[in-house]
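Reopening this one. Same input as before:
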Amino acid sequence: MRYFLEIQYDGANYHGWQKQPNAITVQEVLANGLSKLLRTSTETIASGRTDTGVHCSQQFAHFDTDNIALIPQLEYRLNAILPHDIAIRSMRRVKEDAHTRFSALQRSYVYRLHTHKDPFLRKYSYRFFKSLEVDKMNEAAAFLKTFNDFEVFSKTKTEVKTFNCEIFHAEWISLEDGRKEFHITANRFLRGMVRLITGALLDVGTGRLDVEGFKSVIHQKRKDKFRNVAPAHGLYLRKVTYPEAIFLENLLPE
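Same output, byte for byte:
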């Protein structure tokens, strides 16, 4: 049987989601916890990989098990043994062919920054000192929705079959106390894509790059021009959307 886990985590202490040699990751910690409780080696696959230091308000990972006797208490017991910075918000049984990565319809990220010194934000928001022209940033962000090939916003040596992505929403929002958030939703994202886009839009906001220059660099695929990568600690995977049909009505075995 296949189950989806809805997860939240503070990425500050982890080298991203995916297992790595000689580095602690969220996937490793979660898989170790599941394996211990289910008493067999249990692997997980997530809706997407997050980089070192990136946070998640909502991430999904799936796993398979036939140990149905342990399922009713698994969510509670898993939360009890996981570290304080990883939480299971829900567990739902899904169709056997449901896949956290390939079944996802949309993924949404938010990037957070602030302008004033705040000890409570330093690990969870990027302190940005320069003033920003948000209108110009949003003009450039709107252009992203008319484009498809995002190779210019991918990390070097990114191994994918296509660089095509569909952006549904991209907008900067001004909040109180000089805080700002960049919200972006797409069907998929490339490695490092959101942080590279955020960095480029900050260049537009400070006047380092004008809107027409932003568009031109994308058309020319000048990767060398978009190297301002926004720091990881301001980025959150906020939401992952799936078709409701993949979730079974009997969420747990009878």
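So the earlier flakiness isn't reproducible anymore. For the record, The longest strand covers residues 55-64.
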